[in-house]
Each structure stands twice: as structure tokens, then as C-alpha cells.
Amino acid sequence: MKNTSVPQKLQTGFSFDEAILMAKLCKQIYHIFQQDDGCVDDTEIEGIYNAMYCSQGWEFAHSIRNDDTNVRGFILKKKDAHLYTVVFRGSILTDQGNLELRDIATDMKWDLVKYGSMTDPKIKVVQGLFLAFESVSDEIKLFFKTLAGQLKPRDFQQLNQLSPERQLACVTAIANAGSIRLGIDFEQQVKALIKEALVDGEIGNNEELEQILAVEQDALLELEAVTEPLEVYVTGHSLGGGLAHLCALALRRSIKDLYLTTKVYTIAAPKVGNNSFAKYYNQQIGERMSYRVENWFDPVPNLPLPVPFPLNIFAVNGLKIGELYLGNCAPVGEAHGVIGLGSQSVSLDFGGALEFLGGIPFPHSFDTYINLLSEDQQRWQQFWRPIQDILGVFIRGLLQDHGAEVQAYFQEETQALKRELDEIKSEIKALNNSSQIESSVDNGQNPAAENSILHQPLSNISGDNKRGV
Fold first, then answer.
1. Predicted confidence (pLDDT) per residue in 245-257, tens digit
2. CB–CB of 251/144 below 8 Å?
3. 132 within some domain
């Protein structure tokens, strides 16, 4: 993958460089998790990623997984910068050579349910996406809380209520983030304990998990909060795009703006919630900080399907036909449209064992989106380059022809500004002198006499005057 430049600090507005990079990371996550050996310890995934992609400027920081919901993702760290990216894998049809039904079931759970513990019951999200993200939300939030220096004792107390699998995922997330903050000594100590806990092939040993938690708690609760906000991109393709929207919102809700800034790029993401949710999301994430890249020929961004006319007149809150739910969902963030079916070079890759190369137009493929974004970027560059060249020549010509006039004008303006500042200083000094005189008169003193006394040597002042001074 060609190195794509991104700023060290997140900036508002759409960027082709950022969007293309996020689309390429979405492609990488499908390929990387094809190497998954099924073990809850994803050290092999980290090694494979760093071996294949480390030269591109990003390091593997943490693996996100839940085997019950088949959610996969990872967190990357930009080398020599506090810049991170959370990437979610989309739907797959095969996993380790078997037909994968869990992602299909998630995609089809379109019922609208209440979004967490919101006080407004009208804010609702798609059930399948909500349950999928909630299955991994704990480890993601703990990872960034650790980085931000925002861990509290209650965070460790709440871990005791989780299943052994989720406890392990969370202590691993804390360990990976703690290693970034505290360095190699902490990493070696905690990673050795985690490895020891997995040696016997089970993760239900409470004593081993408690020992890991005790080490982490002693070291990390004393961490100082970061002085500058962590910069975090959040992205995903297809189903992963829906998870990315929920992830960005969860981070904003759990970590204060002072410590974390997020920017979202989703590729071919479905809709996540209803109109009330969309308004809440846009308010929390902020303007020009969330973009969904959508191909006009791709049907997935239109899901879940709306209630058709004229049934929508009567089914205001949605319509359920058997297991299929049709609801009034709204997109979040801002749309960036691309148009194309996919070229001969596009691969139709569903992960696992199923992959078709070229010859099949497939507008939902991540390769299609990468190609279309790259083509659009080239067109914009070709469009703007002549304009920039003309403007550059025009401005240089103006400076050459009227350089002396421009310089004289700015010198005159500078001198005028200096004179105004001198006048303001004189007025302030006069006001200070006037206030001092009025204060002396109000106290029954003679300002002139007092001034003469203050300028006499101490030896010439009488005893009474000395006491007065």
C-alpha cells in the first residue's frame, strides 16, 4: 500500500488522503484475520500485521474480537505520534472454510431498540449493530481510558462482573495501552502474566486474572492524564462501518473532549439508527468530523430498508414482516458519493476461503471504493492544478508589478498603527496620573508635598515623616 499522508492532528473537513487510507485499512483487516488461528490470544495477528504493513508507518496496538458475535477489529498506532485508528471488519460469508451465518444474522436484525441508557426513549438504533458493538465496547473504551490516564477504581471493579473471556479481552486491552504509556518493563511483566494464564488452555482461573488486574491497577491508576487530546480515526467497511459509527459515539460519551478527539470515515456503511439517533450522533461528533463514503450503485448504504409508500403513512414506527423489519432509519454524518460498478482489477473478497478475482462488477467491494476514491482524487487534482497554476502566475505577476506599492502601503499602515498605540499609551498614563491625584485629594493629602517628601533622602526626613513613610 502506498504511503498516504495524513496530518498529525485531526482537522475538520473531508480529505481524499484520509478516506483512501481508511479504505485501504478496511481491506487489510479482511486479509489479516484470514490468518486467525481461532485462539483468543491474537499475538499471531499482531506479528503478521507488523511484518506485512509496519513499513507503512502504523504499528499494531490491540486486537478486538468476540467469538460469540464474530466481531473483529484492531487498533493501530501511528509511529512517533499519538495518532490512532480503530478499524472494524465487515461481514464475511466464510470463516476458516465454513459458511459463516453470524454476520448474516447480524445484518438482518433491523429492529430498532433503545440506545443504551439514554434518557430520551426516542433515540433508537438497529438491534443487530448495537448488540454486535456492545459485545466489544468494554475493551475499546478501557484501551483509550488507559491511554488518556482516565482509569478509575470502578473500572477495575466492573471487570469482576464480566465473563472470563471478556475479562481477558479487557485486561489485554489495558495491558496493550499501558505498554504504550509505561514502556517495555510494564509490557513484559503483564504480558508474561497473561501468557501464563493461557498456558493451561483455560481462562476461567479467577486467581490468575485477579493477579493481572492487581498489577495493572497498581501501575495505571497513578498515571497522569494526557496534556493533549488523543487523535483517533474510526473506520470500517460494510457492517464494520456501522460498528465504527457506534464506536466513535461510545468513545465521545465515555472520554471527555479534553482527552480525545475522533474523526470517522466509513466505507459502504448501513444506517445505524432512527432520526433521533442521527441528530444525537451529529451533535456529539461535531460538524465535518464524520464522513460516510457511499457508492451510488451500492445498495448496502440504503439498509435497513424504509417502509414503502403508502404503508409508511400508517407504520410510522416501522413495519415487521415475519423476521424482516422495515424501519425509518436515517444516515449519520456527511455523505461523500462515488459512482462505479467495479473494474476488472477489483476482487470480490468475502474473507476466509471465498474469493473471486476480477471480471465481476461488484459495487460493494472495498477495492471498488479504493479505486473510485483514487480516481476522484486524480480528477480533482487535474481540475484544480491549472487553476492553481493560473492563480500562482497571476499573484506573482501582481507582486512583481506592484511590489513597491504593496510594501509602501504596509509600511504606512504599520506606522499608523504604531502612532495609534502611542496615543493609547499616553491616554492610559494620563488616566493613571489623574486617578492618583484624585485619590490623594480624597485622603486630605497634598500630592505635591507628598511627592517632594518621597523624593528626599531618608536622612533628611523627620521622625514623624519616617513613621508616615
1. 999 999 999 987 7
2. yes
3. yes
For the stretch 30-58, what's the b/e string if a residue is b when 16 or more beta carbons lie within 10 angstroms of its beta carbon?
bebbbebeeeebbeebbebbeeebeebbb
C-alpha 247, offset from chain centre: 9
Look up residue 318 and give its three cell numbers.
Answer: 416501522
DSSP annotation of 99: E
The answer for residues whose C-beta is within 8 angstroms of residue 42's C-beta and 6 or more apart is 36, 63, 65
In a domain, 193, yes or no: no
The DSSP bridge partners found for residue 75 are: 62, 86
As a whole number of angstroms, the distance between CA 335 and CA 282 comes to 12
Owning domain of residue 105: 16-150+225-364
Number of H helices, E strands in the chain: 15, 17
Count of domains forming the chain: 1
Q: What is the pLDDT of residues 254-286, one digit of tens each?
A: 987 778 999 999 999 999 999 999 999 999 999
Residue 164 lies in a domain: no
**CATH number of the domain that residue 335 is part of:** 3.40.50.1820
Give the β-pairing of 71-78 and 58-66.
antiparallel
Cα dihedral across residues 283, 289, 294, 300: positive or negative: negative
Residue 328: burial class (beta carbons within 10 Å; 0-12, 13-18, 19+): middle
d(Cα 424, Cα 452) in Å, to the nearest integer?
29
Q: Pick left, alpha or beta for residue 394 (phi over 0 → left; psi -120 to 50 → alpha; otherwise beta).
A: alpha
Number of Cβ within a 10 Å radius of residue 89: 26
Tell me which DSSP letter residue 460 carries: G
Residue bearing cell 475493551: 139
